[in-house]
């Protein structure tokens, strides 16, 4: 019998932290950990070391940004070299020029970019741009898609099904107390991956929808890919209805490929939001898109601000990260895909061996393990029907074996997850699944 891991120091720190830091965490997303939100002393490559001395192979990766693993040397060196230059000038610095130029060269539909600090803020910028450009007020979003925690966006991101209305005509549901009811009037909600429903919803709000926003791969609702032809269909419907197509590539950008999901599926949005992996762990987000829309920031005075936007260290981090990600003509992404595929297939065959109803679905640099005996989920309601308690039990068993995946079953990969790390992960998953199967 292996010794149980001890989390005594994390538990003690959590209790102490709660006395002064609200809820003991800096983001509500971190509340629900096993046994408490853990405290980590350091991260290195594919591994995290917690304060109790436990080592975790990390597949959470800061919820996505750490595409090059923890403390990637090239990025850290570039940031360290920039530190003595200062941080913020409330003015421009030349790294912004270089980064913007590189991003416009790289990203589908990026005629201009504008930097922000977090994905939540960049989404708000995109909403404002869409409204200013079209002269319309409403945003159409999809159930289960997460676009940050703002009043305008945190709607129907994870709605309780008893409040969400019928599947073919969902109603907008505020995600948090404290959100004014008035915001719901500016949002139309639709089930994802269903073009007929989208068309009906656009018809119902004819002439009122400024923008249609989605995660082009529905990562937050379960790493669900778009049905063949779906994104092209959305593009055409947006054109027909005069609504802007807004792709939230905060997770998929620089992760499923250098040109994100749009590059992968050959579709171009009017506005796109990128964040997370682009700066490999430093705070950076952006809106990228059509010149005529982005120009309204200047021509029409569409307001966008932010003290930390374009700060020296985030620019240095992104430039260094891009150097790595762009190197060798996409070899980084070919490797990521190969390792991810190995891990996904390995987990699926272990599930079979242990007779667990686990479905592995995803891209593969970001994928999801679901407990279901049914077909692969195609939207939020189908993914919400999977067994979350069973996934939580697997999460706990994996953590006990030194593998850290998200509680909901999401797995992010980094370039630091090499073949030996994947093999070690599969050996640990074998033990974890055996335990779950016995329980
Ligand atoms: N959009 C998507 C698709 C996201 O996954 C997230 C964060 N997980 C956000 C927006 C919000 O980004 P941030 O946490 O940087 O505000």
TrEMBL record:
<dbReference type="GO" id="GO:0008483">
    <property type="term" value="F:transaminase activity"/>
</dbReference>
<dbReference type="InterPro" id="IPR005814">
    <property type="entry name" value="Aminotrans_3"/>
</dbReference>
<comment type="similarity">
    <text>Belongs to the class-III pyridoxal-phosphate-dependent aminotransferase family.</text>
</comment>
<dbReference type="InterPro" id="IPR049704">
    <property type="entry name" value="Aminotrans_3_PPA_site"/>
</dbReference>
<keyword id="KW-0663">Pyridoxal phosphate</keyword>
<protein>
    <submittedName>
        <fullName>Aspartate aminotransferase family protein</fullName>
    </submittedName>
</protein>
<dbReference type="Pfam" id="PF00202">
    <property type="entry name" value="Aminotran_3"/>
</dbReference>
<keyword id="KW-0808">Transferase</keyword>
<keyword id="KW-0032">Aminotransferase</keyword>
């Amino acid at each position: 019998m292996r010794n149980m891991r001890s989390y005594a120091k994390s538990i003690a720190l959590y209790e102490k932290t709660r006395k002064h830091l609200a809820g003991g965490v800096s983001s509500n997303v971190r509340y629900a950990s096993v046994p408490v939100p853990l405290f980590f002393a350091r991260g290195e490559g594919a591994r995290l070391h917690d304060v109790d001395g436990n080592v975790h192979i990390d597949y959470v990766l800061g919820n996505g940004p750490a595409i090059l693993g923890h403390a990637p040397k090239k990025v850290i060196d570039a940031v360290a070299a920039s530190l003595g230059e200062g941080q913020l000038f409330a003015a421009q610095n030349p790294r912004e020029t270089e980064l913007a130029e590189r991003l416009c060269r790289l990203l589908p539909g990026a005629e201009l970019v504008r930097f922000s600090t977090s994905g939540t803020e960049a989404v708000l910028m995109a909403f404002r741009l869409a409204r200013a450009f079209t002269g319309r007020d409403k945003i159409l979003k999809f159930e289960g898609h997460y676009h940050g925690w703002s009043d305008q966006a945190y709607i129907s991101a994870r709605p309780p099904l008893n409040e969400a209305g019928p599947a073919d005509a969902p109603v907008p549901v505020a995600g948090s107390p404290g959100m004014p009811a008035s915001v719901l009037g500016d949002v139309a909600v639709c089930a994802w991956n269903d073009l007929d429903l989208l068309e009906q919803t656009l018809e119902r709000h004819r002439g009122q929808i400024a923008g249609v926003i989605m995660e082009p791969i529905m990562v937050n609702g379960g790493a669900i890919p778009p049905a063949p032809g779906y994104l092209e269909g959305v593009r055409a419907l947006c054109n027909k209805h005069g609504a802007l197509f807004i792709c939230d590539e905060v997770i998929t950008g620089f992760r499923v490929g250098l040109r994100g999901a749009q590059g992968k599926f050959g579709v171009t949005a009017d506005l796109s939001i990128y964040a997370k992996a682009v700066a490999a762990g430093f705070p950076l987000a952006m809106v990228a898109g059509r010149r005529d829309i982005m120009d309204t920031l200047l021509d029409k005075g569409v307001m966008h601000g932010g003290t930390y936007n374009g700060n020296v260290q985030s620019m240095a981090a992104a430039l260094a990260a891009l150097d790595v990600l762009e190197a060798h003509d996409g070899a980084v992404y070919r490797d990521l895909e190969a390792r991810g595929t190995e891990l996904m297939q390995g987990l699926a065959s272990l599930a079979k061996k242990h007779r667990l109803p686990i479905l592995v679905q995803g891209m593969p640099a970001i994928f999801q393990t679901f407990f279901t005996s049914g077909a692969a989920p195609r939207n939020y309601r189908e993914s919400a029907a999977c067994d979350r308690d069973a996934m939580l039990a697997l999460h706990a068993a994996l953590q006990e074996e030194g593998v850290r995946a998200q509680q909901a079953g999401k797995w992010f990969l980094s370039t630091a997850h090499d073949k030996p790390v994947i093999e070690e992960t599969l050996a640990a998953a074998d033990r974890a699944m055996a335990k779950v199967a016995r329980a």
